[in-house]
Specification:
The chain has 172 residues and is mostly helical. The protein is built from seven helices and no strands. It has helices at residues 2-28, 32-46, 53-66, 71-82, 116-133, 138-146, 158-164. Helix 3 (53-66) packs across helix 4 (71-82), helix 3 (53-66) runs parallel beside helix 5 (116-133) and helix 6 (138-146) crosses helix 7. The N and C termini lie far apart (73 Å).
Protein backbone atom coordinates (compact mmCIF):
# COMPACT_ATOMS: atom_id res chain seq x y z
CA UNK A 1 0.00 0.00 0.00
CA UNK A 2 2.82 2.42 0.83
CA UNK A 3 4.49 1.69 -2.51
CA UNK A 4 1.20 2.31 -4.37
CA UNK A 5 0.74 5.57 -2.45
CA UNK A 6 4.26 6.64 -3.38
CA UNK A 7 3.67 5.73 -7.02
CA UNK A 8 0.47 7.83 -7.02
CA UNK A 9 2.29 10.79 -5.49
CA UNK A 10 5.09 10.51 -8.07
CA UNK A 11 2.53 10.33 -10.91
CA UNK A 12 0.78 13.43 -9.55
CA UNK A 13 4.08 15.30 -9.28
CA UNK A 14 4.91 14.34 -12.87
CA UNK A 15 1.47 15.56 -14.01
CA UNK A 16 1.98 18.83 -12.11
CA UNK A 17 5.38 19.28 -13.76
CA UNK A 18 3.95 18.64 -17.25
CA UNK A 19 1.13 21.11 -16.56
CA UNK A 20 3.61 23.73 -15.34
CA UNK A 21 5.71 23.29 -18.48
CA UNK A 22 2.57 23.62 -20.63
CA UNK A 23 1.64 26.79 -18.75
CA UNK A 24 5.10 28.23 -19.38
CA UNK A 25 4.72 27.54 -23.09
CA UNK A 26 1.32 29.27 -23.04
CA UNK A 27 2.78 32.31 -21.29
CA UNK A 28 5.59 32.49 -23.86
CA UNK A 29 2.95 32.83 -26.58
CA UNK A 30 1.34 35.87 -24.97
CA UNK A 31 2.33 39.54 -24.86
CA UNK A 32 4.68 39.03 -21.92
CA UNK A 33 6.66 41.98 -23.24
CA UNK A 34 4.00 44.18 -21.63
CA UNK A 35 4.87 42.78 -18.24
CA UNK A 36 8.57 43.19 -18.83
CA UNK A 37 8.09 46.87 -19.70
CA UNK A 38 5.68 47.29 -16.82
CA UNK A 39 8.12 45.61 -14.50
CA UNK A 40 11.03 47.81 -15.59
CA UNK A 41 8.93 50.92 -15.04
CA UNK A 42 7.77 49.82 -11.61
CA UNK A 43 10.79 47.85 -10.45
CA UNK A 44 12.81 50.67 -8.95
CA UNK A 45 10.06 51.79 -6.62
CA UNK A 46 8.49 48.43 -5.93
CA UNK A 47 10.75 45.39 -5.94
CA UNK A 48 12.78 46.72 -3.04
CA UNK A 49 9.70 46.74 -0.81
CA UNK A 50 7.95 43.61 -2.12
CA UNK A 51 10.09 40.48 -2.42
CA UNK A 52 7.05 38.51 -3.72
CA UNK A 53 6.89 40.60 -6.91
CA UNK A 54 7.54 37.71 -9.32
CA UNK A 55 5.00 35.50 -7.57
CA UNK A 56 2.39 38.27 -7.65
CA UNK A 57 2.92 38.97 -11.36
CA UNK A 58 2.82 35.29 -12.30
CA UNK A 59 -0.25 34.61 -10.16
CA UNK A 60 -2.00 37.69 -11.59
CA UNK A 61 -1.28 36.55 -15.13
CA UNK A 62 -2.43 32.98 -14.49
CA UNK A 63 -5.63 33.99 -12.68
CA UNK A 64 -6.53 36.51 -15.36
CA UNK A 65 -5.97 34.04 -18.20
CA UNK A 66 -7.89 31.30 -16.35
CA UNK A 67 -10.91 33.56 -15.83
CA UNK A 68 -10.89 35.17 -19.27
CA UNK A 69 -9.75 38.58 -18.10
CA UNK A 70 -7.19 40.80 -19.85
CA UNK A 71 -4.05 40.36 -17.69
CA UNK A 72 -2.76 43.88 -18.32
CA UNK A 73 -6.06 45.42 -17.21
CA UNK A 74 -6.29 43.23 -14.12
CA UNK A 75 -2.70 44.01 -13.16
CA UNK A 76 -3.65 47.69 -13.46
CA UNK A 77 -6.50 46.98 -11.02
CA UNK A 78 -4.12 45.30 -8.57
CA UNK A 79 -1.65 48.17 -8.85
CA UNK A 80 -4.36 50.72 -8.21
CA UNK A 81 -6.14 48.80 -5.48
CA UNK A 82 -3.19 47.70 -3.35
CA UNK A 83 0.00 48.86 -5.05
CA UNK A 84 0.91 45.16 -5.14
CA UNK A 85 0.77 44.82 -1.36
CA UNK A 86 -0.70 41.38 -0.50
CA UNK A 87 -1.28 42.56 3.08
CA UNK A 88 -3.23 45.70 2.13
CA UNK A 89 -6.38 46.52 4.06
CA UNK A 90 -8.76 49.11 2.58
CA UNK A 91 -10.64 51.82 4.43
CA UNK A 92 -13.80 49.67 4.50
CA UNK A 93 -11.91 46.46 5.34
CA UNK A 94 -11.16 45.35 1.78
CA UNK A 95 -8.52 42.62 1.73
CA UNK A 96 -5.35 41.88 -0.15
CA UNK A 97 -4.06 42.55 -3.62
CA UNK A 98 -7.44 42.86 -5.35
CA UNK A 99 -9.02 44.58 -2.32
CA UNK A 100 -11.97 42.21 -2.01
CA UNK A 101 -14.88 43.67 -0.03
CA UNK A 102 -16.13 40.59 1.83
CA UNK A 103 -19.67 41.87 2.65
CA UNK A 104 -20.35 42.13 -1.09
CA UNK A 105 -18.96 38.63 -1.73
CA UNK A 106 -20.13 36.26 1.05
CA UNK A 107 -18.40 33.30 -0.62
CA UNK A 108 -15.02 35.03 -0.14
CA UNK A 109 -13.04 33.25 2.57
CA UNK A 110 -11.71 36.10 4.71
CA UNK A 111 -9.38 33.65 6.46
CA UNK A 112 -7.58 33.28 3.11
CA UNK A 113 -8.07 36.86 1.96
CA UNK A 114 -4.39 37.77 2.17
CA UNK A 115 -3.12 34.66 0.35
CA UNK A 116 -1.69 35.89 -2.95
CA UNK A 117 -3.09 33.22 -5.27
CA UNK A 118 -6.50 33.01 -3.58
CA UNK A 119 -7.02 36.77 -3.55
CA UNK A 120 -6.02 37.17 -7.19
CA UNK A 121 -8.12 34.21 -8.30
CA UNK A 122 -11.16 35.64 -6.51
CA UNK A 123 -10.45 39.14 -7.83
CA UNK A 124 -10.29 37.91 -11.42
CA UNK A 125 -13.55 36.00 -10.94
CA UNK A 126 -15.18 39.22 -9.73
CA UNK A 127 -13.73 41.18 -12.63
CA UNK A 128 -14.86 38.48 -15.10
CA UNK A 129 -18.36 38.81 -13.64
CA UNK A 130 -18.15 42.59 -14.09
CA UNK A 131 -17.01 42.10 -17.71
CA UNK A 132 -19.98 39.83 -18.37
CA UNK A 133 -22.40 42.30 -16.78
CA UNK A 134 -20.79 45.13 -18.82
CA UNK A 135 -21.08 43.06 -22.02
CA UNK A 136 -17.31 43.24 -22.59
CA UNK A 137 -16.94 46.98 -22.04
CA UNK A 138 -13.71 47.28 -20.02
CA UNK A 139 -14.39 50.79 -18.76
CA UNK A 140 -17.85 49.81 -17.51
CA UNK A 141 -16.46 46.60 -15.97
CA UNK A 142 -13.86 48.66 -14.10
CA UNK A 143 -16.58 51.00 -12.85
CA UNK A 144 -18.59 48.01 -11.64
CA UNK A 145 -15.53 46.46 -9.98
CA UNK A 146 -14.94 49.67 -8.06
CA UNK A 147 -18.59 49.81 -7.01
CA UNK A 148 -18.71 53.54 -6.33
CA UNK A 149 -21.34 55.98 -7.50
CA UNK A 150 -20.76 59.66 -8.05
CA UNK A 151 -17.25 61.00 -7.51
CA UNK A 152 -16.30 64.15 -5.64
CA UNK A 153 -15.34 67.05 -7.88
CA UNK A 154 -11.83 66.78 -9.24
CA UNK A 155 -11.59 63.00 -8.86
CA UNK A 156 -10.55 61.04 -11.91
CA UNK A 157 -12.98 58.17 -12.67
CA UNK A 158 -11.77 54.75 -11.55
CA UNK A 159 -11.43 53.32 -15.10
CA UNK A 160 -9.12 56.21 -16.04
CA UNK A 161 -7.07 55.74 -12.88
CA UNK A 162 -6.60 52.04 -13.62
CA UNK A 163 -5.96 52.37 -17.34
CA UNK A 164 -3.82 55.52 -17.26
CA UNK A 165 -1.96 55.47 -13.97
CA UNK A 166 -2.43 55.90 -10.27
CA UNK A 167 -3.25 59.62 -10.00
CA UNK A 168 -6.45 60.19 -8.04
CA UNK A 169 -7.09 63.86 -8.79
CA UNK A 170 -6.96 65.93 -11.93
CA UNK A 171 -4.10 68.40 -12.29
CA UNK A 172 -5.24 71.97 -11.82
Amino acid sequence: DQIKDLEKKIALKDADLREALFDLDEIKGTPIEYFMLYRKATLARFEMIEPRWDRIMEASWRAAKKNGVAPDVFIGVVEHESFFNPDAIGTRGEQGLAQIYAPAWPQFDTNRGFEIEYNLEFGTMIFASCMKQAKGNIREALRLYNGRGELPEGMIPYPDRVLNGRTMKRAK
